[in-house]
Amino acid sequence: MNALDYFNARLEATISPMDYMKASKADPNKYMLIDVRNGPAHVRNVTIHGAAIIPQQELADRLSEIPKDKEIILYCWDVWCNTAAKAAKVLLENGFKVKELTGGITAWKELDFPVSTLTEEKALPDDCGC
Amino acid sequence: MNALDYFNARLEATISPMDYMKASKADPNKYMLIDVRNGPAHVRNVTIHGAAIIPQQELADRLSEIPKDKEIILYCWDVWCNTAAKAAKVLLENGFKVKELTGGITAWKELDFPVSTLTEEKALPDDCGC
Amino acid sequence: MNALDYFNARLEATISPMDYMKASKADPNKYMLIDVRNGPAHVRNVTIHGAAIIPQQELADRLSEIPKDKEIILYCWDVWCNTAAKAAKVLLENGFKVKELTGGITAWKELDFPVSTLTEEKALPDDCGC
Q1: Buried b (16+ CB within 10 A) or exposed e, B98-128
Q2: Is the N or C terminus of chain B more exposed, i.e. has fewer CB atoms within 10 Å?
Q3: pTM here?
Q4: Interface ipTM
């Protein structure tokens, strides 16, 4: 694999926060954004605005919630997180169109892009077993 | 692709701030460093010292400014930024020798490596359309 | 290379701090963690708890210190650092099982995972020539 293959693969597999913000504003119905972070719910109560929440550990059992005709954008914690990559692997193997949001929620927050805080009523169950 | 292919591809396609600093001191004429960030000029007025400025959106029209006999080093904002990867793709497809500076200007600044601040007279035009 | 190949390669070549923490607790003898950072010793005196220290520049001469029956986990400074990738290349070419710890010691510290500070007596020699 040469350098061009490497960049092509990265650009096919990922989308930056800035590019996703622009693309989803231009065509909101084209995308489904999914927060695939695992871990205790209280550390995940801030999410990217508009994201569905499907922890990577539950993903294989919840494929029916994910549309095949949209581009699925996955994110986890940060650039060093592999959880979105694991989720992307599952979805790609099942025929979905998928990209990872680079930098996860950390890069998104650094850019001051909109997030949501789950209220207590809507709080996540704290029993994902991770 | 196995793990060795992956590391070989990354090492062929990228250079770290520390390695670029060392290499460009040893042989300054070997490299051309280009800031390919898009976006309003005022948010890009701090650049890596010595960098040429060619926004990625203008790159395809400005290839004549780039020498084929140097190693072209591209950077954008941060590790999660895909702008340098997009620019690298264009340059590689046009026969240039290219590497991405890992971590962009953010990693460079974290290392306290030298930057330049554009003065008002030399300010960038704020009309790149991005 | 398509997106699935890209994610498979990343997952084969790297392990996140969270995954390494969990895996090494479950089976401590399966892994050897190596700090491969180069540079003056005083800037490297904080290490990940339990790591062996073999600077990347010395690695080719110290392969006999590394077991072939363990999974070798390498780390350097941060996500933008290429030193662990260079070390991984050497080890993979010599038949070792290797992964890079994503995000290096910076991500590890951000997660408040345990580190060690070398005391003066145990201080690293400051003569690695880098």
Answers
A1: bbbbbbbbbbbeeeeeeeeeeeeeeebeeeb
A2: C
A3: 0.92
A4: 0.90
